[in-house]
Amino acid sequence: MKKYFSKINLIIVLNCFLFISCSGSNSEEPIVDQKPANLKVTATIVGANDQNPNGDGSGMVNFNLTATNATSYKIVLGNGETKEITNGSFSYTYTASGTTTYTLYVSAYNAGKFVSKSLSITVLVEPKLIWSDEFNTDGAPDASKWTFQIWDPERVNNELQSYTNRSENAIVQGGVLKIKAIREKYGKGDFTSGRLESNGKFDFTYGKVVIRAKLPTGVGTWPAVWMLGSNIGSVGWPACGEIDILESVGKELNVNHSSLHSPGRSGATPDTGTIKVPNDNTEFHVYTADWTASYIKFYVDDKLFYTFANSDKFPFNKNFYLIVNLAMGGIWGGPVDPGFTSSTLEVDYIRVYN
User: Using one digit for the tens of pLDDT, what is the confidence trace for 168-180?
Assistant: First the structure.
């Protein structure tokens, strides 16, 4: 009987040994290499066809990225922006006006291992109007687009005017917005004028702003069409950023200043460019800012005169709103000509394109 049980015990021990051996051999099988492979990238430009190989002008591109073993992707879009995604399908809209060729770098990742490739695409972006005021309806400025600022003198820049909502200071007539500065005793000051803002009614990030305007006359006048960052209420100035498109002072006749104010580069030391604009107070001229993530370009009558290199270290990559005003005196406007009685900033239109 003891021999019989000994044989059974021997069989059990052998079976256990075989099981353990088999299990051990399975654990020693080579681990499959998880490095991504077979990276494929398709970039479909929306609206592209034989007649329009670079797209329909919207700037939109649909991307599809696939790779064996990939858990995430990174794509450098060729315009200073980078996207990191886990889903290989996404859309992106380029904003630089005109026909532009971008070199893209795409990588597929898995646990620190990756595979990469590059490609080039050429995309057409045609500006599309997203907001405008043509000032074609006589009377008060359009309240759906503009808010009057009503201020006492010296609220900013030691300026001398009281801003009002009176028709004497701001009115639309004959297809033109007229903002008139007047020497008169009013409230706490000796001058009145108008200031309109689109804050809370329209703001945007990136685009082309086109203004057709005729400037006032007189030493001490300080007209401007410009923009402020919509977050000014929470971060203050100059952290919000300021983009001056049309800005002039009466003591420097026929000179336009286009400037950008940001922390450390504000007040009297902004990033700025100037251009002579002959007869700017007797003729209408077109003032333009072309604003993208990588640059802001300024033009007068389609002549480029200043390019600012934009980047994510500046506050010019978020929503801004529009301002139109005519100040008197102040830090930059300086002393007002004793003979000044009144003068008017006239704006034919303001148009914003995507």
Answer: 999 999 999 999 9
> With a threshold of 0.90, does the pTM exceed it?
no
Q: What integer pLDDT is reported at residue 58 of this predicted model? A: 87
| Percent composition of the chain: helix, strand, coil (DSSP 3-state, to 5) | 10, 50, 40
Q: Are 219 and 335 in contact (CB under 8 A)?
A: yes
Q: How do residues 311-347 score in pLDDT, each as one tens digit?
A: 999 999 999 999 999 999 999 999 999 999 999 999 9
Q: Respond yes or no: is residue 247 known to be catalytic.
A: yes
Catalytic residue among 247, 252, 283, 346: 247
Distance CA 116, CA 40 (A): 10
Lowest mean pLDDT of 46-50, 123-127, 291-295, name the range: 123-127
Q: Can 159 be counted among the known catalytic residues?
A: no
Q: How many residues does this entry show for the chain?
A: 354
Distance in angstroms (rounded) separating the CA atoms of residues 203 and 205:
7
> Which residue in the list 28, 29, 81, 242 is annotated as catalytic?
242
Q: Other C-beta atoms within 10 Å of 103: how many?
A: 11
Look at the block and give the residue holding tokens 């290199």: 309
Q: How far apart, in whole angstroms, are the C-alpha atoms of residue 30 and residue 20?
A: 18
Residue 141 burial (C-beta neighbours within 10 Å; 0-12, 13-18, 19+): buried
Helix (H, G, I), strand (E, B) or coil at 331: helix
3-state secondary structure of 234: helix
